[in-house]
Amino acid sequence: MEPIMVRALVVVGLVVAVLLVGWLWRRRDGTVRETAADVRLADDHLAAVGLDLRDAEAGAILLGSPTCTPCDTVKDVLGDIAQERQGFRWVYADAGEHLGMAEEHRVLRVPTLFVVARDGRILARSSGVPRHDDLRRVLDHDLDSAA
Amino acid sequence: MTQDLVTDADGRLIIDVRGPRFGAAITATVLAVALIVQGPVGVGLVAWQWLMFTIATFAGLAWSPYGMLFRRIKRRFDLGPPPATEPEGPPRFAQLCGFLVTSIALAAFALGAVTAAWVAVGVVLALSLLLAVTGICIGCELYLVGRRLAARRGGGA
Question: How large is the ipTM?
Fold first, then answer.
């Protein structure tokens, strides 16, 4: 086979591989995973990002970065949820300013969202843009079990 | 060519989200052809793409030739208003990544490390393809890695 044909095949293979990775990526992105274990956010981490849950039912911390377009979409989602639910508080924090928290909870990318109960217990987390209904489900589930 | 640009309250350039993906598709095509034909023409195409990254990174996306081409096509074929807009920061960061890796490729060509150079070109091709088809935010994936390395180098955590 001519070398140019080999190279063309390599490029075609690369394109197929990238499309496959992109497809898998998009399927995974934004998945809200409920955390089964009793993992908590330390009080000083909560204080550092300025999330005050004393008169709230649940809250969320969004870790982002200054050059993160999907973070703005997640902020919109959280704004919608906060409008629906009186007892829901959320804050945005730059992940780079809270590296200790990022390291402790193995945050690898932005946007990463932590949904927390009022006692700081992590109810769920997601990376990427979560869907409204997934967040509502987590919050409903938590409030039912707390009642 | 820059009169129809929009800025936000902080004076940051606001762009049509379709622009970077259009540019990434051209970038991917140019680099795919370069990888296939190789030789002087291939190296020339890599150098051309390096120049595109350089302009977009250092002069800003307002001056990006692919961005200008996109605005022209948008007007000519009346593609309608943007489905969404975004600040130029993240895509400009992606251009910087492209600039850095194509610089490595060109340096490798100059040093005679031809295979290494084409591998670097393949990396840029893969990333621009990924951007063109998924709109993925490369800066988001690299941000924490970068901040962690910076913190370590600075001696703090």
Answer: 0.73
